[in-house]
Write a structure and sequence with these properties.
By secondary structure, the protein is α/β, with parallel strands linked by helices. The protein has a single domain, classed as Spore Coat Polysaccharide Biosynthesis Protein SpsA, Chain A. The protein has 6 helices and 9 strands; from the N terminus they run βββαββαβαββααβα.
């Protein structure tokens, strides 16, 4: 563990959360991926419905005009690091928001804004992993690690800022593994809860999955 990092803390309270919706969606033709429709609602609406009950407060991480997300009635937090530095910059923005606006929160949960089937017990299970003495936790499924779905101590925000601005670190898992990282496996059947929408064919597949889930 890096010097200055807090030890694993079993008493994390109820984290706050951020939905990372700042991707530029090149493979879907550009624009805001989360505003594309899935089963009659924006993709982000599905993500928010699953994320919001797991946290004490929720924000959206996105750059540009926040008015386009007004319908979700959530605070919109822009990256403080210039140049589209990727999801780590979104996490840092969430940590800064938590420190400024949610001072009682010790941890931030992060959710990808393009994963409409994310687990309803994600934060609970990641929090249980921290209680075992880890500093950070992230999800995995089907043999793949999903570091954007993570649980982050607010106390690490200056460590992350230095990594982004002084070291040029951009890979989420690379930075997380500087600390005691718990990787928590989630079942991938009957569907992978971390299925994410990147391309038109992914959106079509998500429509089929949503229809199957609705018919039970």
């Amino acid at each position: 563990m890096k010097e200055g990092a807090p030890p694993g803390n079993p008493d994390i309270g109820r984290p706050v959360g951020i939905v990372l919706a700042g991707g530029r969606s090149r493979r879907l033709g550009g624009g805001d991926k989360g505003l594309r429709r899935l089963a009659g609602r924006p993709i982000l609406a599905h993500v928010i419905a699953r994320a919001r009950p797991q946290v004490a407060a929720l924000a959206l991480g996105a750059n540009g005009d926040p008015a386009r997300f007004a319908g979700f009635a959530l605070p919109v937090v822009a990256d403080g690091v210039a140049g589209f530095a990727g999801p780590l910059a979104g996490v840092l923005a969430g940590l800064d928001w938590a420190a400024a606006e949610q001072p009682a929160a010790t941890h931030l949960a992060s959710f990808a804004g393009d994963a409409p089937f994310l687990p309803g017990d994600m934060v609970e299970r990641l929090g249980a992993a921290l209680a075992e003495g880890h500093d950070l936790a992230c999800a995995a499924s089907a043999g793949r690690v999903h570091p954007v779905f993570g649980l982050w101590p607010v106390a690490l925000r200056e460590e992350l800022r230095r990594a982004l601005t002084l070291e040029g670190v951009r890979k989420v898992e690379q930075w997380m593994r500087r600390f005691r990282l718990a990787v928590v496996e989630f079942p991938a059947v009957p569907l992978d809860p971390f299925f994410n929408i990147n391309r038109a064919e992914d959106l079509a597949a998500a429509e089929r999955l949503a229809a199957a889930a609705a018919t039970g």
